[in-house]
């Protein structure tokens, strides 16, 4: 079982794969914190697992955390894409 301290360590180490695995932990608070940590990191690998969690997790609070994190990830990816469109090609 993953602890909340483990989640903090994974977030600080930018361990996206570990945080994605923690989305399936038996503890809803661990799942929620893993989701929010993934949202804060805004790594595109988290998009699909967060999308699935926001509709399938048995806990309403974990689904809400996943929905929030999903919005953060999608928003950040859109910012990055928009930034590339504005600046054009770099030489």
Q: Oligomeric status of the shown chains?
A: single chain
Q: Which class in CATH terms? A: Mainly Alpha
Overall mean pLDDT score? 92
Summarize the helix and strand pattern as letters.
HHHHH
Gap between N and C termini, in Å? 48 Å
Question: Which overall shape is indicated by the principal axes computed on the Cα atoms?
Answer: globular
Rg over CA atoms, rounded to whole Å, is 14 Å
Q: Assign a percent range to the helix content.
A: over 70%
Structure summary, number of beta strands: 0
CATH superfamily: Leucine-rich Repeat Variant
In terms of DSSP E residues, the strand content is under 5%
What is the third-level CATH name, the topology?
Answer: Leucine-rich Repeat Variant
Question: Segments where pLDDT lies below 50 for 5+ residues?
Answer: none
Can you tell me the CATH architecture? Alpha Horseshoe
Number of helices: 5
For the largest beta-sheet, the strand count, sense and barrel status come to: none
Q: What structural class should be given to the helix and strand makeup? A: mainly alpha
Number of domains: 1
What would you note in describing this structure?
The protein is built from five helices and no strands. By secondary structure, it is an all-alpha fold. It has one domain: Leucine-rich Repeat Variant (Alpha Horseshoe), CATH 1.25.10.10. It is globular. The mean pLDDT is 92.
